[in-house]
Design a protein that fits this description.
Low-confidence stretches: none
Mean pLDDT: 87
Number of helices: 1
Shape: globular
Helix content: 10-25%
Strand order of the largest sheet: 1-2-3-4
């Protein structure tokens, strides 16, 4: 039996025009999820495999950690 290893190469990540939002796009440039750098919340727009979801969530947390900004 062949194991399927989910990969991030079929996704790309882009800063949205809205400040603090990172868009998760698939190969066809469809919006899959939006990640907030302010809160660390990832809102999924489309269904992906659970293993891919885990990898994406981990990658975003490592590369775009939550920004604790205090405004005055």
């Amino acid at each position: 039996m062949q194991k399927h290893h989910p990969t991030l190469s079929s996704f790309h990540f882009k800063r949205a025009k809205t400040d603090g939002i990172i868009e998760v796009l698939n190969e066809g440039s469809y919006l899959m999820a939006e990640y907030s750098e302010r809160t660390g919340v990832l809102q999924w727009q489309r269904v992906v495999l659970a293993a891919q979801k885990e990898k994406i969530e981990k990658w975003l947390g490592e590369h775009y950690p939550v920004q604790n900004r205090t405004r005055r």
